[in-house]
């Protein structure tokens, strides 16, 4: 199904076409309140420019504003959409095709970056889906899908368009490479995202595709024989773009506060710049040799289709194109002494939505956490990589995504214990001379699961004799952990604490319950959420009964009281560290393994969805030598980043197989001002990617769901059909990441929204099996 968006101007390629303004006609615009500042990418601290014209230093010298680059268009060529004479051109030679390939779910149908008979191409399964974003003129005027395709003699291919077989599209192929034009029935394409499936009809066997073009038939004799990709080409060594006249490139990006597009342009050429959003609003201007700057600030905080189109000359060169923001590049502090003590506290089942430091306005009182934040960095867009304990702990322990550690308790495949071949945090710190110890009340984070590897001492208090009813209070865990640390505080030490006070059955904590649920209360949940009333089962992560509204309010109050109780225990831990005189030598990481649903959608518990209720959790890091106090980070971060953060802090080399990257540069400001993603997996059959205020959820079946987490933090309303620019932005990044999540390296490549130069080069040549 394709979405006929009411705002046609924002669909797909609208920003690429200089005449696209007329596409703004259609339904009523959707009013959007101004969003918060955009998220950022800490890939690199600065831009010692390869081209002085684009640097803040040069700007200052000329009397212009001081600025630094946050996004380099050439480095992010993987995400650029090509348009030639207003027609969509898709480069199928590399992994960038994944942006159009329907997320590779339930199984990948395209294999990227292979060399077939001398040309790089994608290899298509018998049914190979695509999702093509088209503007109004493009959808109306397109008569053919032209492909550069490799086949066996006599193979035939056809198209299915928006769920229907397209009669008359079938083409019989010659052997080897050829360019063919497949007819598109009139009226079959629509404005927005179009579902197109390339079908190999007969005989069976893969075909390979180098490029595609959606538009008019070029000629009857040699339809589109020329390679249209050459009209919009990148030169990474020169940090330049070559655009033929009327050719365009479009990136879907979030405009940062104070964002300007700057570049150097060939004398006599004009580069038309348009930044258009889903409401049809736009900002823009022109880049010229003596006026190579366009102010994008009218669109600050909004997701736009940022298009660059060449005018006035046969071929234009755009050198060092950047988006820059005001102010000097941040300087990183690298020489600080490492912490002597590292403490990781995982508070089970604590969702960020219920903690005021991470969601202002939340009810729970957390005075110790609020005070701690003054000397810490607080990460507000932080995702764990799973919605239950084992998957998320496995990522925290190893620094790899679920597709790599493969720990999952549902779905197809997977394992139920941590693979021995992977590095784990305790072992790495033990190798650095740290005494390693742990105390947890989470019964699943145990020796059998592989989580005790590398620990000198480890207690799973839930598994010890004397536990009644599966209840171990946080005070007991903190006491056990402090006793372990006291025995080893004469040497560097790593301490893991795992408390479970917010886990069902949610036991009342006083005095807070009387604040959050003042008496009288006469329902069944006087002291805890009873298994009988909730339908809780020993092997289940959720409830099977929905109590009345008044009782739900009581349960949420009990949950909040458990947050405040753990805050008290946090204060007690800090007080003890101060009394020992080791607080100033301690790195404290405070987080959770997942959140909790509390009947927002008729259920309680976890493991059942990828809403932020379950995967956005608190992350606070206190280490003043590396994490400036009072820092609020709204850019994306992930549990996969914890291991590299700790290893960098203690001066250890990074994990060879690690996929995350240290959060130290981001906390110090490197790359701030540019959106970056957070990702989570639900047993590898559903996936979520959040970029700034926008989030996409992808499952093995059905259309993706898009949510605006500012206007709709509970994720009740799917706006995929109303926000085409945001949907395409999310589709681009989710598509590429999901195709490569098993090998992605944030440390080397950056993130999909902001690649490093080396990452761009690597991905140019990436091949998938």
Helix share bin:
10-25%
Please give the count of helices.
16
The name CATH uses for the topology of the domain at 341-387 and 424-634 and 648-653 is: Alkaline Phosphatase, subunit A
The CA-CA distance between the termini, in Å, is 29 Å
Topology:
Elements: H1 56-61, E1 67-72, E2 81-84, E3 87-91, E4 110-116, E5 119-124, E6 127-134, H2 136-141, E7 144-151, E8 156-161, E9 164-165, E10 171-172, E11 176-183, E12 192-202, E13 207-215, E14 232-235, E15 240-244, E16 247-254, E17 260-265, E18 270-276, E19 282-287, E20 293-295, E21 303-311, E22 315-326, E23 341-347, H3 367-373, E24 377-383, H4 389-398, H5 402-405, H6 425-431, E25 435-440, E26 457-460, H7 474-488, E27 493-499, H8 512-516, H9 531-534, H10 549-580, E28 586-591, E29 597-598, E30 604-605, H11 612-615, E31 619-622, E32 631-638, H12 642-650, H13 664-667, E33 677-682, E34 686-691, E35 694-699, E36 705-708, H14 724-740, H15 746-749, E37 750-751, E38 754-755, H16 757-764
Helix pairs in contact: 7-10
Question: How would you explain this protein's 3D organization?
Answer:
β29 (597-598) and β30 form a beta hairpin. The strands form 7 sheets. Strands 2, 3, 4, 5, 7, 11, 13, 16, 18, 19 and 21 form an 11-stranded antiparallel sheet that branches. This protein has an 8-stranded mixed sheet with strand order 26-25-27-23-28-31-24-32, with helices on both faces. It is built from 16 helices and 38 strands. The chain is α+β, with helices and mostly antiparallel strands. The two termini are 29 Å apart. Among the domains are: 80-218, Galactose-binding domain-like (Jelly Rolls, Sandwich); 341-387 and 424-634 and 648-653, Alkaline Phosphatase, subunit A (3-Layer(aba) Sandwich), CATH 3.40.720.10. Residues 1-62 have low confidence and may be disordered. The chain is globular.
